[in-house]
Write a structure and sequence with these properties.
By secondary structure, the chain is mainly alpha-helical. It has a single domain, classed as Growth Hormone, Chain: A. The protein is 75% helix and 0% strand. Helix 13 runs antiparallel to helix 16 and helix 15 runs antiparallel to helix 19. The two termini are 37 Å apart. 54% of the residues are buried. InterPro entries: MFS, MFS_dom, MFS_trans_sf, MFSD1.
């Protein structure tokens, strides 16, 4: 460790690797219910003309059928949990709502107490949450199953959303004014690698080893994230001390107040809304995509999972390259607007045509990758280094509020006890709802670009232009009074010295 030089490219990319591994396992776990949606919601549907059989309480509960009775026919599901569609979508909604409540406080705590505190606490919560969820699955057929699963998702949500914030904060510190968008793209790619492997492996793993071992495997992957937290916190501590920033960052953290949120600019808030509306279309779709594709296109469960996972396949492959490209050309706000516009046809295809679903999922994967590489790295550009955690927390909170509402709306639209024809109609309504969110994203990103242009166009600057602006703003800083020459120069681009966006 003593031989590592913190200012070298190799050191910051070593930090980046272990920083990426923080969320690999948790992203694998996040969408495991999506891949196994049929297993979660299917019941042992048994039929028998005997009244005594239909009066059996176990049958009515939907967990088991009285297969010992003659003239009984059941499906082949041996581990199905018998959850309703509403309860299944509640697994995603409670994750989103938990994030919405926790991440604001988490972001502020990370800014106040530092990265090391954040990575240990939140990676540990991911392990506890995924473990509790696995225990809930073991309790199938009992009244404790659903509460334990929901508690597990709640704890998991408290950790995973907050862990992403501290991950982004570490990335923003080590790559500010360098390969920032590329670094964000690489962290996204690692996270999506977890999601992609989930869509490719989980269904087959569950068929071979069973549902319970599948859930425990996910918990073990979260344990890898905890080990990575130990490593990255050590590297971060060593690096900041070697660069002489440790005391400065600690001093800025002590001065930080939650009320500094009032200094966040209008472009930041429009950026927050743009992220929320775009993700309102992506995440609720992915959560139900396997079931949707199976219902509408009559494809096998495994194939449906593969097709749904194509969204993340594309993101995993192209995100690092897109980040590097955006670092060079800039145009983050413009690219976000174009992505929102190009996403409109995706939900139109899914709602109104019978085009093979891979076309739509690949298309969505491309626009999602560009949007993520454009929007999230823009946050450190419009807030100061000292408030990045708080800004990420606010953004994630608003995002998760939107996703939570969207999951509940999707659950209500789908309903329950529908015929095959009615279900297809309801799926069309779901796609129209997701399309409406995309249209709202178009309007928001348009306003964001207009507002940002009036304030100097920081979102659309390339790396070279940012460095030039940094030099210009630094030269105009009045060292005696500690103020800027003009309001237009009050940008957070100077970094850790400045506590709030307008300070």
């Amino acid at each position: 460790m003593a031989e590592l030089l913190a200012d070298t490219c190799g050191f910051r990319f070593l930090v980046l690797f272990f920083n990426c591994m923080l969320t690999f396992g948790s992203y694998f776990c996040f969408d495991m219910p999506s891949v196994l949606q049929d297993t979660f919601t299917q019941r042992n549907n048994c039929t028998n003309d005997s009244k005594s059989f239909h009066d059996d309480k176990t049958f009515d509960s939907g967990f088991y059928g009285n297969t010992s009775s003659p003239n009984v026919t059941c499906n082949n599901c041996t581990e199905c949990l018998g959850m309703s569609e509403d309860n299944y979508n509640l697994l995603y909604a409670i994750y989103a709502w938990t994030n919405a409540v926790v991440v604001i406080a988490a972001g502020f705590l990370i800014d106040k107490l530092g990265n090391r505190f954040g990575v240990f606490l939140f990676s540990f919560l991911c392990v506890v949450g995924s473990t509790t969820f696995a225990v809930g699955v073991m309790m199938k057929g009992t009244a404790a199953m659903l509460p334990l699963m929901l508690i597990g998702r709640l704890i998991f949500g408290s950790g995973n959303g907050s862990l992403t914030i501290v991950q982004n904060r570490i990335t923003a510190y080590w790559f500010r004014n360098k390969e920032l968008a590329m670094a964000f793209g690489i962290t996204l790619a690692f996270s999506r690698l977890g999601s992609v492997l989930n869509f490719f492996l989980t269904q087959n793993f569950a068929q071979i080893y069973g549902l319970q071992w599948t859930m425990w495997g996910g918990a073990m992957l979260c344990g890898i994230g905890f080990v990575s937290a130990i490593v990255v916190s050590s590297l971060d501590k060593w690096g900041t001390k070697q660069r002489g920033d440790d005391e400065t960052l600690r001093s800025d953290s002590k001065k930080l107040k939650f009320t500094d949120i009032r200094h966040f600019s209008l472009p930041f808030w429009l950026l927050v809304l743009a992220i929320m509306f775009f993700y309102n279309g992506v995440f609720p779709f992915v959560a139900d995509a396997s079931k949707f594709i199976k219902d509408k296109y009559d494809l096998p469960k495994t194939t449906s999972a593969y097709l749904a996972g194509a969204v993340y396949d594309v993101s995993m492959v192209v995100s690092p390259f897109l980040g590097g490209l955006i670092d060079v050309i800039g145009k983050r706000g413009i690219l976000a607007l174009i992505c929102a516009l190009l996403t409109i046809p995706v939900f139109g295809i899914l709602a109104f045509t019978s085009v093979y679903p891979l076309v739509a999922t690949l298309w969505l994967g491309i626009t999602y990758s560009f949007a993520a590489a454009s929007l999230w790295p823009s946050i450190p550009l419009v807030v100061s280094q000292a408030t990045v955690g708080t800004a990420m927390g606010v953004t994630t909170s608003v995002q998760m509020i939107g996703i939570g509402i969207s999951n509940l709306v999707v659950g209500e639209i789908l309903g329950k006890n529908l015929t095959a024809v009615e279900r297809l109609t309801r799926w069309k309504y779901v796609m129209i709802f997701l399309l409406a969110n995309t249209l709202a994203c178009v309007a928001t990103t348009l306003l964001m670009n207009i507002t940002d242009k009036k304030r100097g166009g920081i979102l659309n600057l390339s790396r070279k232009q940012k460095l030039q602006k940094l030099q210009d703003v630094t030269e105009s800083f009045n060292s005696e009074s500690g103020t800027y020459d003009t309001d237009s120069e009050r940008q957070p681009i100077l970094g850790p010295r400045h506590r709030s966006i307008n300070a």
